[in-house]
Amino acid sequence: MGRDGRGVRAVSDSSIEITFMYRGVRCRERITLKPTATNLKKAEQHKAAIEHAISIGTFDYAVTFPGSPRAAKFAPEASRETVNGFLTRWLAAKKKHLASSSFDGYRKIVELRLIPALGHHMLVDLKRKIIRDWLDALQVGNKTLSNIQSCLRSALNDACDEELIELNPLAGWTYSRKEAPPKDDDVDPFAPEEQTAILASLQGQARNLVQFALWTGLRTSELVALDWGDVDWLRGEVMITKAMTQAAGGIAEVPKTSAGRRSVKLLRPALEALKAQKGHTFLAGGEIFQNPRTLVRWAGDQPIRKTMWMPAMKKAGVRYRRPYQTRHTYASMMLSAGEHPMWVAKQMGHTDWTMIARVYGRWMPLSNVDAGSKAEGAFASGSCIDARPSKSEASR
User: Fold this and answer.
1) Contact indicator for 316, 201 with CB cutoff of 8 Å
2) Quick one: 27 exposed, middle or buried, by C-beta within 10 A (0-12, 13-18, 19+)?
3) Nearest 5°: CA angle at 275, between 272 and 278?
C-alpha cells in the first residue's frame, strides 16, 4: 500500500499519494512533492496529522485538500446534519424570541409535519422538488400549506445565514393548489335575535363577559388578560396591552404587533357590561373577568368554551359557533351600521383595513341614496363644465 505499508507511496516523479480512512471511506489524495526519502517522511507526518484531526473531529476535507473532488462529499459536519437535527436545534433557539402562541404553532408544524416527513434528509440535500412532492400529497387546504411553508422558509433562511446551505429552496416560491372557494362558515356572526337569546341564557359574570365580547370585538386571549387598571373611565376606553393564552401557561404576553396594543372605545352595551361586572371583581382590583366556578381568572379559550359557552348555546337554542364568532359579530355590526372601516380596523387591532375589507366586505354598505352628495357640495359648484349647448350651437 506504499512505504512499508504506512499508506504513503510515490506515484510519479513529482507527487506522493497518501491513503487514509475517513467516515468509513478509504481516501487517496496526492500531494505535490518529489518522492525523496525526506519528502516521503514528511508525507507520513502529514498523514498522521490528518488521522489525528479525524480522531478529534477537527478535520476539514475542503481545507486540507481544496482541489479534491471529494471535498464536496465530505463537507463539514455542521452542513451535513439532518433536517431533523437542524429543525430541532432551530426550534429550541426560537423559543425565547416568539410569543408562546406563535412558538406553539411552530412547534406543532415542526414536530408533527416537517420532521416526520423530511427529517431523514440531509439538510444540504433538501431540494424544492422534495418539498413540492411532499406538499402535493398532503390532504390539507391552502391556508395550512401556507403555514407549513412559512415555518420551513423561516428555518431555511436561518440555515442560509449560518452558511449551512447556499440557497433556500423555498426562496421566491410558494406551493398552492387550486381549490373550491372557502365556505363562509369561518366568518359566521350572530344575528341580533341570536345575541339576545345567548345573553338571556346567561347570568352574572358569564353574561357580562359575553356582552362585553360582542361589543368590543376583543380576542379571547385579550379578554381574559384584562385588569381593572386597563379601563379609562374618563375617556370611555379600555387599553389592550397584553394577551394570555393557554400555551403561555397563564403568563401575560404583549400583543404580537404594535397595532395589537391599542385603546378600544367602549360603546354603551360594553360599558353596561363593565358596570355590571364591577359588583363581582372591582374591589379586588385584579382581573375583570373570572370563571364563576373558581372565582379566578379564566385560563383561556378552552375552559370558557367547555364550561360556559357550549351549555349557553344549547340552552339558547342557537346553532353552535365557536366563541371567536363574537369578534366577527362585532365587526359585522360596526360595518353594517356604516362605521368607517379604518376605525373598525383600529378597534380590532389590525394594521390597516385591507383585511377588514377582504374578510368582512359583504357587510360594508356599497352605497346609499345620498352617495356622492358631499363631493358635489364641496367641489362641484364652481368647477363643473356647463353641458348645455351654446346659442350658436343650438341654432345650427
Assistant:
1) yes
2) middle
3) 150
- Alpha carbons 321 and 190: distance in angstroms, whole number: 9
What's the residue count for the chain? 396
Going by the DSSP 8-state scheme, the letter that residue 65 receives in this structure is S
The one-letter code for the residue type at 319 is R
User: Whole-angstrom Cα distance, residue 212 to residue 13?
Assistant: 91
Looking at residue 180, what DSSP letter applies? Answer: P
All structural domains of the chain, each given as residue ranges with its CATH number in brackets, are: 3-74 (no CATH), 80-161 (1.10.150.130), 192-363 (1.10.443.10)
Give percent helix, percent strand, percent coil of the chain, each to the nearest 5.
Answer: 50, 10, 40
Contact 274, 266 (CB under 8 A): yes
What totals of helices (H) and strands (E) does the chain contain, helices first?
Answer: 18, 8
Q: Which residues pair with 243 in a beta bridge?
A: 253
Residue 287 near residue 209 (C-beta atoms within 8 A):
no
Grid coordinates in use for 70?
471529494
Q: Which helix (H) or strand (E) holds 115?
A: helix 115-118
Tally of CA atoms within 13 A in the half-sphere of 109 that contains its CB: 24
Contacts 24+ apart (CB under 8 A), 143-148: 145/175, 145/176, 145/177, 146/174, 146/176, 147/105, 147/109, 148/109, 148/113, 148/114
pLDDT digits (tens, 9 = 90+) for 333-381: 998 888 888 999 999 998 877 778 778 877 776 655 565 565 556 656 5
Alpha-carbon span 236 to 210, nearest angstrom = 19
pTM above 0.70, yes or no: no
Residue 125 has pLDDT above 50, yes or no: yes
pLDDT digits (tens, 9 = 90+) for 302-334: 899 999 999 999 999 999 999 999 999 999 899
Give the pLDDT band of residue 301 (cuts 50, 70, 90): confident
- For 158, counting Cβ atoms within 10 Å of its Cβ (0-12 exposed, 13-18 middle, 19+ buried), the class is middle
Nearest Cα to Cα of residue 339 among 362, 364, 367, 366 = 364
Buried b (16+ CB within 10 A) or exposed e, 337-369: eeeebeebbbbbbbeebeebeeebeebbeeeee
DSSP classification of residue 25: E
What is the three-class DSSP state of 24? coil
Measured between alpha carbons, how far is residue 188 from residues 226, 327, 330, 340 in Å?
26, 10, 11, 21
